Design the sequence.
């Protein structure tokens, strides 16, 4: 069945949805997708017509640039359903903007709002049944763009594919995690692509993270590549440190992804009366605060996990265990609860972050 | 037609070769490929049977790791034909080793020699007609590996595809190039993946290179990300500097690709009586040498271009033009000639670098 809903979008739907065979109780993050996807080609210097179609394989020439030169970017965002069955996005403008910043840094074409926001709204509208209500439930949205032109020559592609996938999600990590502070490996450098959500940034972290996992840790907290003295962010999360009753987090930079969760938490925390300081956080002050007992909490913040509490970290062969706080004393839990309630439309949204589809 | 040549390889050939329609006079580097390709899957913790088959599209789930996290590596090497129609590889052991080093750094499985070297020999053997004789002529070989497992979760794939493509080549660049020395952008950092031939390293360079091109330069010479004071390498070439009659090139490091051309040139140049020093090369000493007239040559060295002469460079808004040397005074031309003659089997190979297929 092929229908034109807008002049700029063609929709082909599946004959039969696979939703009945989807187990919403046991959801593995990012593993399964909804019935449809959105695709849009870029060629002859222009974005072409959008197409919503059954989720299906991508076919590319083996010399396509994405396979050889990693010209690929993505975004991660979520949709939520409220008690009235309305579906909401959380700050989609931020992801749209960041996607285009990533595009520029990777020498890829920017995309227009009609395609990015309009396209994903149209796709989610079709997949409403896949968005479940309830705090923590969401539909994870994965817009991405890959370089499709063929030819093994190390120069930017002239052809691209923009695509949106949807995957039902609960929360990302379960439980607290242990992290290792990077002493040798690094994620990003000044003048590099660390601030872009570029594919290549992630595979670069796999090996050091594997080593950390073999040593008994879940994740790495990256430090600045030049001196390894400043705490930057984790694999897919920005990081907050609570010393006494103040929250500290590094300023965004060329090396650090400008996380939507991070910026929302900063605003939310301030409005809730928490003390928040955005400034470089030194490894040294954290180990010192851990030693003298003033380091109360560390947590990661990102769309997938929302907030992930960190129970301890290792640095220079030493392991630092954080204190066990009562739930009601945790800034992390309070902020996570407040933010997810806003996202799931279970609380007021004074910031006007949520956008109805 | 399906034949088993070795227990571990299946071969399906094209019905009709497209070689007659290939224009060997006007070859654009990396744009066109031979009739066949080699593929080999990695799954269930093991490399599967190799397959040589007609060059054809790769089909992947849209959530395949390579599209989202850039888990992809490659190699670049060449085959040459001598006057007796024998086909030769140049130091394939070096590319094989480097491929596996890249694999480790990107958390990908290493591949065995039978598949990498054996596989490419079998493929080239089938494509002998595509290798043309004559100095500078070659068949460019592109082994690569991509992460194929589906799922948008930022962790290493458990499934991979190894693939080899072949593309007839002449030389890569024509004429001398102008370069820009990087002052702000960077290619790699300590603790990063600069020494790996990882896909993500290349797309990271596209935007700064585009800016350099808009300013009238062909390429960027990267400096160390921490201080921007040391000259490292170009996009796909290591770099040599001649001051008076000595050649200088940076030592390889975590940030610099260990180029086969670079190491071969160092050995060849030494054996030809040239003075070669491998040590960090400072931007400052090069601008100084350019100013006082002792900087005679700069050239890039890599498989694709072999040697690419650089006629001048810009640094801090200033352009430094190198002297016009007579051809017979150029170390670059002499070394390029000697190396390509060894590669094309037009000269003796005292180093035993060439390997017959
Ligand atoms: C490297 C990195 N840092 C931080 C984040 C958090 O950003 P956001 O809150 O926008 O999801 C992400 C995204 O998931 C990320 O990939
Ligand atoms: C970043 C980089 N540096 C240097 C080189 C040169 O290495 P080789 O001489 O092995 O081709 C390459 C490969 O082409 C490269 O990609």
Sequence:
């Amino acid at each position: 069945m092929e229908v034109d809903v807008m002049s700029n979008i063609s929709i082909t739907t599946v004959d039969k949805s696979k939703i009945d065979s989807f187990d919403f109780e046991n959801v593995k993050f990012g593993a399964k997708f909804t019935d449809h996807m959105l695709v849009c080609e870029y060629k002859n210097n222009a974005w072409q017509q959008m197409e919503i179609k059954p989720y299906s394989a991508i076919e590319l020439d083996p010399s396509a640039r994405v396979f050889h030169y990693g010209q690929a970017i993505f975004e991660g965002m979520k949709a939520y359903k409220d008690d009235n069955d309305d579906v909401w996005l959380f700050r989609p403008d931020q992801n749209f903007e960041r996607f285009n910043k990533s595009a520029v840094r990777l020498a890829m074409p920017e995309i227009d709002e009609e395609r990015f926001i309009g396209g994903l709204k149209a796709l989610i509208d079709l997949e409403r049944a896949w968005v479940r209500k309830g705090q923590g439930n969401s539909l994870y949205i994965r817009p991405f763009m890959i370089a499709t032109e063929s030819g093994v020559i190390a120069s930017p592609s002239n052809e691209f594919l923009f695509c949106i996938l949807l995957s039902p999600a609960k929360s990302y990590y379960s439980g607290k995690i242990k992290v290792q502070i990077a002493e040798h490996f690094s994620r990003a450098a000044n003048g590099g692509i660390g601030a872009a959500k570029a594919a290549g940034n992630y595979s670069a972290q796999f090996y050091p993270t594997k080593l950390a996992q073999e040593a008994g840790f879940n994740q790495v907290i990256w430090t600045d590549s030049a001196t390894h003295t400043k705490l930057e962010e984790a694999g897919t999360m920005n990081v907050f440190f609570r010393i006494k009753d103040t929250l500290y987090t590094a300023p965004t930079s060329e090396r650090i992804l400008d996380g939507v969760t991070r910026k929302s938490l900063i605003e939310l925390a301030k409005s809730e009366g928490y003390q928040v300081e955005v400034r470089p956080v030194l490894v040294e002050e954290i180990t010192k605060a851990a030693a003298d007992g003033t380091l109360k909490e560390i947590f990661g913040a990102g769309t997938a996990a929302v907030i992930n509490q960190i129970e301890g970290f290792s640095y220079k062969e030493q392991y630092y265990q954080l204190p066990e706080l009562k739930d009601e004393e945790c800034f992390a839990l309070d902020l996570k609860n407040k933010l997810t309630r806003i996202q799931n439309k279970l609380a007021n949204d004074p910031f006007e972050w949520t956008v109805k589809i």
About this structure: The longest strand of chain A covers residues 138-147. Confidence is low (pLDDT under 50) at residues 1-5 of chain A.
